[in-house]
Design goal:
Blueprint: E1 27-32, H1 36-46, H2 48-53, E2 60-65, H3 71-81
Antiparallel strand pairs: 1-2
Amino acid sequence: MITYINGLFKGEWIAAKNECPEQKFLHKVVRQLCSPAHKQKMEKLLGKRHVAKDPYYTQTYAYYRPDWASGKAAINHLLKVCDSVQIAEPQESVTQEAP
């Protein structure tokens, strides 16, 4: 299932750096910059204290995705972030052509 906002999805909504009100309807993903396997390898090479002090090994980044694992996950998220949720009738749906 993919989330469209007013019949659109814009690529600028993906980056977490660009804050947009439309992002609250999307699936936020937070990932670590350094994989756990790489972090463990560096702990062996450099030592746990060095790795614990270096922010690179604990740093994360975020981005937004328009897709959801299931329709239930999307509906549950929308119920949390919206005042009301209703299913649009086919004639009410907004479709816009690309310029």
